[in-house]
Structure formats: structure tokens, C-alpha cells
Amino acid sequence: MTVMIEADNLTKHYGNFIGIENINFSVEEGEILGLLGPNGAGKTTCMRILTGFMPPSSGTARISGYDITTESLKARQRIGYLPETVPLYTDMTVSEYLTYMGTLRGMPTANLKERLPEVIETCGLQEYQKSFIANLSKGYRQRVGIGQAILHDPDVLILDEPTIGIDPIQVVETRQLIRSLGGKHTLVLSSHILPEVSMVCDRVIIIHEGQVVAVDTPANLSSHLQRSQRVSATINGPSNEVMPALREIQGVQDVHRDSDNPLAYLIEARLDGDIRESIAQAIVQKGWGLLELQSVEMSLEEIFLELTTTDRESQ
Amino acid sequence: MIRNIIAIAMKEIRSYFGSPMAYVIGAFFVGLTGFFFIDALSVPFPVASVRGFLDRAVVLIMPIWAPIITMRLLAEEQKLGTLELLMTAPVRDSEIVLGKFIASLVIFLGTLSFTIWFVLLLFVFGDPDIMPLLSAYVGFIMYGVAALSVGLLASSLSPNQIVAAVVGFGILVILTISQEAARQVDGVAAVILEELAINSHLEDFLRGVLSTRDFGYYLAIAAVFLFLTIRSLESRRWR
After folding, report:
1. I want to staple B179 with a disulfide (CB 3.0 to 4.6 A). Which of A112, A190, B94, B197 is the partner?
2. Cβ atoms of residues A91 and B18 within 8 Å
3. What is the pTM of this model?
4. How sure is the predictor about A227, in pLDDT bands with cuts at 50, 70 and 90?
């Protein structure tokens, strides 16, 4: 595997304000990397530096081995970029716009003619080729934006908040499109929607206040950071007896009632051993009905909250 | 690369002539110069030359018209966010600026070509000297080259087209009144102000005299302002 993107101590200051500080990461060929963080965490700054829109205050980055500051044009040739606000010339038609962008990306005319219908099909824009961009809906504009980014078949694709502001059905389609682009392209995408990143990305970098808080696969992140195991149980029994019975079980730390379902309980337990077995045993002994027993994974939302709050506490 | 410059220029020319504004402004230009043309010939002993209307077109039309042609070119890219796309494409900042400048020049020449009608009228009804006529047009075009580059710098400074037009107009007015200011002072200051004035270099052209000094002035103004425009774009990377 070759490393396609290498960020080395990237730092960007806007006056006294710190945009990002000492960001290090590398992305391998074909990998989909997610940049995750709340608004203003430094995701866009990071991407703007990688794409050569602005230089870092210090540190450097390489795209396919080309330094983004000293070999900017070569690095830029290898990137397809979709900025956060999709930049479109509204007075052009979809195919005019894509042709223009392809030309600027240095595609030979013959190559461009061949590639244009492919990209229009990939992005589902067949019916809108001759439409003026001004008349397209936001979701279709987003597709045109993705179209210009993948048109020249770049090694590296950088997508800033690719699903923001489009309707739920189009979000699903856009995610599928992005997922299908991985493997062929090396992809970096940013998002503040956690399930999206865990669905689409192979690896996640969590950024908070300009610094990397965690780097891992979405699955590892949830397992590593889990301090306790959690189990949801639906038990058919008198609730005033079930609660204390569950609390008595060896290893159980806390039990909560589910506000929606009177029979459901959320049990927190120590990490040693699977608590589900003991719970099942205890319930069967009492003669109650065990309707459901399921271990609950910590969601990325909670991980995120945990990471950023513990980070603040330690400061 | 030439290909990038041409692609950018073609795109701008197409979108300019694709908007109704092009025709409104074109009509205004032809109407005004037509009025100046008639007015210059409505004297007791009219001279068959284009000097009369070009002279006034420069002072009264160009300081407004040139910034109007260029105001959109870089301001709108900033407003739409497409500048981010241009600047992350493998295109040099100088190619962006030159492409835009060439587009503005083509738009300017295209509109100016309507005044060839007045020249035809002169040939039909009079007997004009061809050389002063040509030199007057060359001078007017050189003035355009300088004024458009001033307008382009203004357009790079703000995402607002109106601000861009006003700033361009302001710079051109300062370059115009510096000739008046020259009369208020003496010595070296007067010479500098006189030399700096954008119209004073047109007088010889209109009289039929081509001098390298006047060419040099307009080309220098264009070079300086185009260079500043490139710098202004580059500076966005450092903010």
C-alpha cells in the first residue's frame, strides 16, 4: 500500500486564533478517511490546506508524494475537491460547467469527451445535462459538484461536508456514491454527522478545537473507549422487584428504566466477562419472562462527547 | 499555459454576451458615442475625424465603462465561492488574471467595433485622413488596455461587484484629474502628475502622433495593475 496523503505537523493560525495545530495523519491508497468534529473544529481549514487553497502556517503535507507548497501545481493536478459551499457557475449548463472544469484540470479534449458521459451517469445527471445550474435543486447541485471533483479521475478526492443541506433520500444516494468511489480513489471527507462517518469511512480522525483527539476505525473507537458494557433488557415482571434484583447481580453498576417502554431496562456493568449470562440466569430463577437481551454499543456521539469533555478536563 | 488562459477567457466572454447587461451597456455606449459624433460634426467647419467623439468618450465614458466590464470578473468568483475551485485547480494565478483580462479586452473591442459605423459615414460623406483616424483608435484601445487592468484589480479586491466598479472608477478618476492637479503645483511634482495622467497620453494619439512614451505609459499602467491583481489573488492564499 502506498501512502497518498501525508500531513506533517500542519498548523494554521489566523492572526491570534488557532485554526489547527500540529495535525499529523496519513491516508493510504484507496482508503476513505473521515474528518469528524463540530463546526469550527478545523476540518475545512485542514482540507483547504491539503488542496492548496491556503498554505499552512507551519508544517507541510504531501499528495502522492508532491509537496503542497513547493510543488503545488503537481499536487493540485492529483486532487478533486468539493468545497463546503458547492462552487458552481449558475449561468452555465451542467455539461458546459463540467467541460470547463475538466479543461482547467488539464484534461485533453478527447479524453474529456469520453469521460463526460461516464461522470454524468455516475452522478445520475443524465436528464439534466442541458439544464442551467441555476435551475437545479440543491441535491443535484451537490451531484454536479461531486461530478467536477471526480471528472479528471484524481488520485485523491477531498469532499468537505458532502451531504450537508440535502434531503434524506439524496443523502443516502450521495453516501452510496461516495462509498463506491473508495477503492478507486483515496478519499478524505469531513462531516459533523457521526453515523455518516461510521457508515462511510474506513478510518476516522476526530478533530476538536484544531487538534486531533483520536484516530481509529469507527468500530475500534467505540470498543476502546467503552468504559463499561451496556445491555438493554426487556423483562416481563413486576418493575418494583425487577430493579433491585438486577442491581444485586455481580458486576452490575447501574440500572435505568426506559421512559418509552415500561418493561425495558438499561443495565451498565463492569467490563470483565459478559454480563448477559448472569442477567438471564437471575431472571429465569425469579420466573419472569425475558423478552429481549441485547448488548448496546457506545455510539460515536457518546464517544465524541467523552473524548472532547475528558480532553477539556485534562487541560 | 495558453490553454488555461483561453479556456478562462472564452468562458467569461460567453457568459458576458449571454447576459442582457451586455446589450444594455452596448446600446448605451453606441448611443452616447453617436451623440458625441453628431455633436462634434455640428459645428460651422466640421473636420472629418474621429477625434471629436473619441476625445469625449474617453473622459466621459471610459472611467465608468471599463470598471463595469471588469467588475464581475473576479468579484463574482469570490461571491460564488468558485474562486476556491479555480485556485485549487492546477491553474496559476497569473493564468486566471490574464484569462480574465483578455476576456475584458475582447468585450471592449467587440463593443468598440460598433463605432466603425461612424467611420464609414465619414468616408461616405467626407474625406478623412486615414492615419490620424487609425492612431486615434490605437490610442483609444491603449487607454482601454490600461483602464481595464485598473478595473480588474478593483474586481479582485471585493466580492461585491458594485464596490469593485466604484473602486475602479475612483482610481481612474484620480488618474484623470492628476492632469488638473498638475496645474496647481510646479516643478518636479507638476511633471510627475502630468505624466501620471491617463488622458494626457492620449492627446498625441488623437492628433495622429504615435510616440513610444505614450505606448510605454499605457503598457506600464497595464503591467503594474495586472501584477497587483495577481498579487491580490495570491494574498488570498495567505489570509
Report:
1. B197
2. yes
3. 0.83
4. low
Last residue of a domain, one of A223, A243, A267: A223
**Quick check: B11 contacting A, CB < 8 Å?**
yes
Minimal Cα distance from B82: which residue of A? A87
Check: CB of residue A93 under 8 Å from CB of residue A80. Answer: no
Q: Which residue does chain B place closest to A72, by CA atoms?
A: B90
A-B contacts at Cβ under 8 angstroms? 70
Residue B142: give the domain boundaries.
2-237
Say which range, A110-119, B38-47, B105-114, B155-164, has the weakest mean pLDDT. Answer: B38-47
| Closest-CA residue of chain B to A145 | B85
Q: List the CATH number of the domain containing A160.
A: 3.40.50.300
* Residue A101, beta-bridge partner list: none
* C-beta separation of A61 from A188 below 8 A: no
**Torsion over CA of A194, A196, A200 and A205, rounded to 10 degrees?**
-30
Look at residue A312 and tell me if it is in a domain: no
> Is the Cβ pair A54, B15 closer than 8 Å?
no
For residues A195 and A76, state if they share a domain. yes
Query: Between A271 and A79, where is the model more confident?
Result: A79
Per-residue pLDDT at A194 exceeds 90: no
- Counting the structural domains of chain B, the total is 1
Domain span at A274: 227-296
Domain co-membership, A136 together with A41: yes
Residue A104: closest CA among B118, B83, B120, B194: B83
* Cβ atoms < 10 Å from Cβ of B109: 11
Give the model's confidence band at A313: pLDDT under 50 very low, under 70 low, under 90 confident, else very high. very low
Does B235 reach chain A within 8 Å, measured CB to CB? no
Please, what is the average pLDDT of chain B? 90
Mark which residues 73-112 of B lie under 8 Å from A by CB.
80-92
Query: Does the pLDDT at position A49 exceed 80?
Result: yes
Residue A282 lies in a domain: yes
Yes or no, beta carbons of B88 and A101 under 8 Å apart: no
Identify the CATH number of the domain in which residue A250 sits.
3.30.70.100
Query: Is B74 or A270 the better-scoring residue by pLDDT?
Result: B74
Instruction: Determine the Cα–Cα distance for residues A96 and A85; give it in Å rounded to an integer.
Output: 20
Q: Is the pLDDT of residue A192 over 90?
A: no
A80 in the same domain as A50: yes
Same domain, A246 and A167: no
* pLDDT, tens digit (0-9, with 9 covering 90-100), for A245-284: 888 888 888 888 877 788 888 888 887 777 888 888 888 8
A106–B90 CB contact, under 8 Å: yes
A148 CB neighbours in chain B (<8 A) are 85
Same domain, residue pair A174 and A87? yes
CB contact under 8 A, A105 and B238: no
CA distance A103 to chain B (A): 7
Whether A219 and A231 share a structural domain: no
* Sign of the C-alpha dihedral computed for residues B208, B210, B211 and B213 taken in this order: positive
